[in-house]
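Regression test attached.
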Amino acid sequence: MATITIREALNQALREELARDEKVFLMGEEVAQYDGAYKVTKGLLHEFGSKRVIDTPITELGFAGLGVGAAMAGLRPIVEFMTFNFSILATDQIINSAAKMLYMSGGQFNIPIVFRGPGGSAFQVSSQHSQALESWYAYFPGLKVVMPSTPADAKGLLKSAIRDDDPVVFIEQERMYGNKGEVPDDPDFTIPLGVADVKREGKDVTIVARSLTVPLALKAAEQLEQQGVSCEVIDPRTIRPLDIDTIIASVKKTNRVVIAEESHPICGVGAEISAEIMERAFDYLDAPVKRVSGADVPMPYAKNLENLAIPDVNRIVAAVREVAYLD
Amino acid sequence: MSKQTVAPPEVDPQLLKKERDQAKERQKDRLSGLENDQLIELYRQMLLIRRFEEKSAEAYVAGKIGGFCHLYIGQEAVGVGAISAIRKDDYVLASYREHGLALAKGMSARSIMAELFGKATGCSKGKGGSMHMFDKSLGFFGGHAIVGGQIPLASGTAFATKYLGTDQVTLCFFGEAAVNQGAFHESLNMAQLWKLPCIYICENNQYGMGTSLARAMSLRDIAQKSCAYEMASEFVDGMDVLAVREATMRAVERARKDYLPTLLEIRTYRFMGHSMSDPGNYRTRAEIEKYQERDPIKLFSASLLEQKIVDQKTLDEIDRKIHEEVDDSMRFADESPLPDPQELYTDVYATPIEPGRK
């Protein structure tokens, strides 16, 4: 076990999978000569050459579609979006081509492609650069959507995503690239898609968190422990397909749920999880499901306003106390 | 904003005849490049598409075909000419006006008609319909129904063949209205930058649904747009199957030998509406008739007869056989089963995941 950052873990996953399979190639803006805008792809051009690690023009729709076409013809592309905000330009190809190709071709053309890059908020980059888009992509059958929160998950899940035969939208978090954690050394270490992870066991309240809110939920759980509240923190890790069974099992144990997410609340993943809990575990609930979401506004620039727009430890603590009827 | 309209061209019968004779003259020179049986095969394929589409229209009106149905009638020379210039293992991608291209690539009338009927025996198991015909084994990589969406995909298949070191080429068909989409420009830029063996075939039928080219495009010389990307291009008469074939052969050679892309603007005309539900109020009867005078199938059969490559009896026999083939495809589609209800949930994922499976 080595202790490395999420950035390094992702880099290892890319390196190992590029080495493992000649059909895997990586393309995106600044991924090669510049070593990646966030250095996730550092050193890969040097190691694998310009045939396998390809700088693209700023042409998101074009290179996303080119990747899907390459997948139709037998390759396994990894397409990096410098940030997922730019994937908005490519949604036609992600949704209309990648997600639906297998179905509308009657099972003839699967699309083994990974669309990856950072999503969510960063540090004061304002409205157009701070969007959590997972609910967009999770909406579409045909796509798989993954959001890791630790270095080990990042590495294990990215390797699985690259080996998967379907299109995977793999959303990292820019604020978390420097987060450290232990990662197994085994080059064949993978984590299966579609499996939630119980990040902390507890008995009083379940907190469902993903990506940015996982470390926040774990900190909140520590504080709440001091206050006599035992929290279970569940990270679904894969948004589609969602391992709802693990969440339901926890809810049946704790009878109280807080969902912490960076995204806007409307039509979000939290809303979906909440609906699933209503349908499957209503009789087990001792309090209404509570969401802690990003503010329902475009992301502001000013530091104080930005802080108000993003969930923090205090808001999660308050929400847990609310569903536990402590205040 | 006032509505811009384009005055319909006056039809001068003398001029029409002159144009037709000139077209025939040009085609005559091209006939010598092919054996007689090859020429007859081109004719057969064009006529098969024509008859197949006529039958599709009937079936649509009879309620056997649902959704949208975009016919290829009038444009047969483009698909047949271009696809005759490539190998079986080359790739073709198309828009939603792709029945004819699928036939030209070797897909059976049965599998296409059954797909139109939404039957389990269709080429896409009844899940794609008119706009999403696929046959991987024949290199037909689909009809795609977002205007211009197939253009980046085709750049990707060309990228893959180059990456894998094979010498296949990709033909990408799209209408002229797709040229206004960003996907077109993004694709051409990358294709020339990275030297991808893709031939971009713009089927300029002069209308994007009901909007004429004049109302939609500032620079209407589409072949010239390749200059923005330093890409080779040609303007081609799409009513002459041999002209299309020859231009495509030149482009294919560039692609296969040197991995160089080409933009072909092939001027054609659709004789029917945009889709089956289009009454066609945006163009005059006279304009349609003018182009029907240049019907690619009539032009070609006249050339073949005049040059004594084939006699009328043989042409009649070809037509009879095609009628049989198309009728057979209708019967087959009619009698085929609907998809099993279980199929609703298959083919969503290649590797479906049971969530929670460790």
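Expected vs. actual: identical. Chain B touches chain A through 51 residues (CB under 8 Å).
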